[in-house]
Amino acid sequence: MEKFKICPSCGIKNSPISLECTSCESDLTSVRVLDKEAEKALLEKQSQNDGSVLVRICDCGVKNLPAARKCSSCGEDISDIQPETDTNHVTTYILSSIDGAYTFEVNKPTVTIGREQSMKEYLCKKVFVSRVHAKIVIDDNTLIIENLSPTNFTFVNNKKLSLGEQAELSNGDELGLGGFEKNGQRQSDAAYFVVKESCL
Q: Second label for 110, Cα 20 to 30 Å away, from 104, 134, 136, 151?
């Protein structure tokens, strides 16, 4: 079973032997190694809390995840700052390409993505992605994706969504437009993203 470390700062999955996040270079030395079952249990535990959100606020004013050891903005060491309840938080969602070369902030209640829609500057050369591929909706701070492509499909954590089928997206989920991962390989003509969630 695949094992990994989830970066507490950006949510990217890293190799279990990584000491730093490959995306944001946050310290991973004290981050627990997980597998899919442990990740699911952790997410269930987090969803059963009282709804309060904890953050570490850097001296520069940026709010960071409670497990972050470095500020996501200025890179300062914040491991000695105690997490506190954020009473005025807004959840924002970002889709970050697997290679880290492109990010897309979901900043509207409904966004249609595809080669001729939002994200077209990145998706235009991905021939497995449809012109109108999927719809993303933010509903009560929940991110939902609906597959609009009858031929190329949308995949959430390698699970195929049929035409019109919806799925809730969570922090760290992998989204495949027109392709999925098989034996550690991904199709180069498809597009792959990691869902990142942050509280502002």
A: 151
Max CA separation in the chain (angstroms): 51
Residue 56 in this model has a pLDDT that exceeds 60 = yes
DSSP string for 12-66: -EE-TT-SB-TTT--B-TTPPPB-HHHHHHHHHHHHTS-S--EEEE-TTS-EE-T
- CATH assignment of the domain containing 163: 2.60.200.20
pLDDT band at 139 (very low <50, low <70, confident <90, very high): confident
Does 140 reside within a domain? yes
pTM summary value:
0.56
Full domain range(s) for residue 187:
91-199
b/e map 138-161, b = 16+ CB within 10 Å: beeeebebbbbbeebbbbbbeeeb
